[in-house]
Amino acid sequence: MRRFALALAAALVLPALPAAANADGVVRITSAFSVARTVDALEAVIGKAGATVFARINHGGGAAAAGIEMADSELVVFGNPRLGTPAMQADPLAGLFLPLRVLVYGDGQGQTWIAYEDPGAMLDDLNIPDDAPYLAQMRGALQNLTMAAAAGG
Q: pTM (2 decimals)?
């Protein structure tokens, strides 16, 4: 876990914009790049940080294949067992919410957004202490990875 955090911190040069969850627990930040380029950058920084991308789901492409118009939207599902396993040890139901997910989407006005649910909010109803160290580590990883992707990787 320490290696993951150190690699993440050393590998990423981040803009000075803080990410904070809204009242709904969802953190939203803007990207200056297209959805596809932002997701490519996100995948790259996830790999550099030592985590695994399990899936890249193209919601917009699925809608287009069904003949339905929708702005670009892709979901990236990823994780690192060193962060997720302790949560599932504390409460096996954490497996319903993990691995972590980040949505990158266009708003139809030309703006690309990156969104994810704050891990504390996501796991709030489970038997997981609010001060569990892995929640802070997940929160930090999500913030660092998404901010790096928003900056183009």
A: 0.85
Q: Which domains does the chain have, with CATH numbers?
A: 2-9+26-150 (3.30.310.70)
Q: What secondary structure does DSSP assign to 82-103, as a single string?
A: HHHHHHHHH-GGGGGT-SEEEE
Alpha-carbon distance of 109 to 121, in angstroms, equals 29
DSSP state of 72: -
- Structure token digits, residue 146: 């998404």
Per-residue pLDDT of 12-51, as tens digits, reads 333 334 456 677 889 999 999 999 999 999 999 999 999 9
DSSP 8-state code for residue 127:
S
What span, in angstroms and rounded, lies between the C-alpha atoms of 18 and 41?
A: 19
